[in-house]
Design goal:
The protein is mainly α and about 70 residues long. The chain has a domain of about 45 residues. The chain has 3 helices and no strands. The longest helix is centred in the last third of the chain and has 19 residues.
């Protein structure tokens, strides 16, 4: 397919107004580790589909922030 054949009618062009309040967020550096987690916990996270490690990381981050806020 050539560029001229692409239908952009459902995706409007992004203008300067769209980017006016945009912020750039850099991803956190990831560290490869080995951790032992109960099988039923991993099975539960995996049952929700791919990216289960990302969900675990997100949950741990929320826990960390809550603990920091509480102290």
């Amino acid at each position: 397919m050539k560029d001229k054949d692409i239908d952009y009618s459902d995706s409007p062009e992004l203008t300067d107004d769209f980017f006016k309040n945009a912020t750039m967020t850099m991803p956190h550096n990831k560290v490869l580790i080995t951790i032992r987690i109960d099988k039923d916990i991993i099975d539960w996270f995996k049952s929700d589909g791919p990216r289960y490690q990302t969900r675990i990381n997100s949950l741990l981050r929320r826990y960390m922030k809550a603990k920091k806020k509480a102290s």
